[in-house]
Structures are given as C-alpha cells and as structure tokens.
Write a structure and sequence with these properties.
Layout (H helix, E strand, L loop, with lengths): L1 H7 L5 E4 L2 E4 L9 H10 L1 H37 L4 H9 L6 H14 L4 E2 L1 H8 L10 H13 L1 H4 L8 E2 H8 L8 H14 L12 H6 L4 H13 L9 E3 L9 E3 L2 H11 L10 H8 L17
Antiparallel strand pairs: 1-2, 3-4, 5-6
C-alpha cells in the first residue's frame, strides 16, 4: 500500500483527484506539438486581427509622416516667395501698356547696352525707361522681388566683387509686370530673351524680332531661365519638391534643381533628349506639369 502511494505521488505522475486531472508538484511536462497547434487554432482570429490592425496602423502613420515632410518643405519654399500669385496678377493688370512687343524690344537691346551680360539694378532700370510707354505701376512689388533675389546668393547670380546681376534675371523680374493675351505670347517673349542674350549659341541683339524667334536656344539656358522664374516667385512651390534618396522608414524630400525640372518636363512631353528648343518647345517645357510656370500647367488661359 505504501509502495503504491509512493508511485502515485512520484514527480511527473498524473493523478486524479475527485474526477479532476492534476499533476504532482514535480517538473512541468513539455507542451506537445498538438497542444501548440491547438493554441494557434484557438487564437487564430486574435493573431490575424492584431497583425492586420498593426500593419494598417503602421501604413497610416508612415503615410501621414511622409505627407507632413512634403508639406513642411513646400511651406518652407512658399515662405521664401517674395510675391503671392494675386499680387503678380494685379501687377500685370495695372500695366496694360507693357506687353510682349516692348519686352522683346528691351531683350534685343541688352547685348549692346550690356555686352558683358550683367548690370546693376539701377543701371537696368535706367535703360528700360527709354522703351516703356508709361512708367511701371506697382514698381514696389518688383523691388521686393529683387531684394529677395539679392538676399539669396544662389538665386541672385551675383559676382563676388560686384552688385551686377545677370540681365536675364533682371528681365525675368521685369516680366512680372508684362501683360500678355496668351500663355504662348509669354513663352515666346521668354524665348526671345534667351535668343537675344546668347542662349541661342551666338547671342547678338541686332537681328529682327522674327529672326530671334527662329533661333533654337540651348537647353542649359532653359534650365537657367527656369531657375530665374523660380527665384522670382513664378513657379508654384509644390512643383519644386522632389523625393529624396531616403525612403525608409520615412520618405524624405528635397528641393528640385532647375535642370531636374526641365528634364522631367522634356520626359513628360515625350520630347527627344537633344531636342532643339524652339518657341513651341519652350512653351511645352514651361507650361508642363513639371514646371507649371505662372501656374499655367498646359492651360491656354489669359496670363
């Protein structure tokens, strides 16, 4: 009898106490594969839902962080803009006498007036007075955009020992007040500027207006023009944001270069990489979704 009791109470031996299965106080028995499988079967929905909600939550958090990063950079670029679109629109409306023809006449005069391609703001202002039919209205807005360029060395294109600026930048500032009937008129005027100031490979401003329009300008000059448009608040801030190299755990963003914007526009328009930039091609680049100069984005509305 005592031997039997010792056997029944030996460590690890199962016993029944009043109809219940129990174990002695010895070491716990290892879980069998079937019992482990039963655990996952009993809790499969809990495991599934936990994983599903965790994945969804992680995705939503990552997307919201990515959006916040994009919005932060866009707001930073927008904060640097000297003028808002409504101010540019009012400036153009107030200068109905300053149109494409006058702008192109000034463009063709620059190579003679400033053979080095640079001028101070005061020198440039004095030069254009002889071409304007009336004094510019809202000149203080152009002055404000000029000061914003000067305060940004990368945008102002200044030399280290001079206050002289690239005359193409000064003309792009002046274009803020240019009133045109169509986007095509505006892009044609900008093409004349590039062709008249050396962007066509030979420069020279002595030719007639039609001759200047027939010159194909260099793609590098187009990238510089896009940079000038960016620096004078004529490219929407959201178009200047580009995805950075770091994508995980969160997408980073950086400011696109003018050359990248032009490359994207050329690809978007399905143009050859070595395309000659005629007035028509320049229009396709500037009003593309990639650049969207003046907020046009391939529209044909009055600019």
């Amino acid at each position: 009898m005592r031997t039997a009791l010792r056997l029944l109470t030996a460590p690890g031996v199962r016993t029944r106490v009043r109809g219940r299965r129990t174990f002695s106080s010895g070491p716990a028995a290892a879980e069998t594969p079937q019992e482990s499988e039963n655990f996952f079967q009993r809790n499969r929905w809990t495991i599934f839902l936990t994983g599903a909600f965790g994945s969804i939550g992680g995705y939503v958090y990552r997307q919201s962080t990515n959006t916040a990063n994009h919005t932060t950079l866009t707001a930073e670029i927008e904060g640097r803009a000297a003028l808002v679109p409504s101010e540019i629109r009012d400036l153009r409306l107030a200068n109905g006498l300053f149109g494409r023809e006058t702008f192109e006449s000034i463009s063709r005069s620059l190579v003679v007036a400033f053979p080095g391609g640079r001028a101070t703001y005061d020198e440039f202002g004095a030069h254009i007075q002889g071409y304007l039919d009336a004094p510019l209205v809202g000149r203080h807005l152009i002055d404000r955009a000029f000061l914003a360029c000067v305060s940004n060395p990368a945008a102002a294109a200044k030399t280290a020992d001079s206050d002289a600026l690239d005359v193409r930048l000064l003309m792009t500032l002046l274009s803020l007040a240019m009133r045109t009937d169509t986007v095509e008129d505006r892009t044609t005027a900008m093409h004349c500027l590039l062709a008249s100031t050396g962007g066509g490979g030979g420069g020279g401003g002595g030719g007639g207006g039609e001759a200047r329009h027939e010159v194909a300008v260099e793609r590098s000059a187009v990238a510089e023009l896009v940079g000038f448009l960016r620096d004078t608040s004529q490219v929407p801030p959201e178009k200047l944001v580009r995805e950075g190299d770091e994508k995980y755990p969160f997408q980073t963003y950086r400011e696109a270069t003018p050359a990248e914007l032009v490359e994207k526009a050329v690809t978007e328009a399905k143009l050859p990489a070595d395309v000659e930039v005629t007035p028509e091609v320049l229009k396709e680049i500037l009003v593309s979704r990639a650049v969207c100069a003046w907020g046009s984005c391939a529209s044909r509305r009055r600019s």
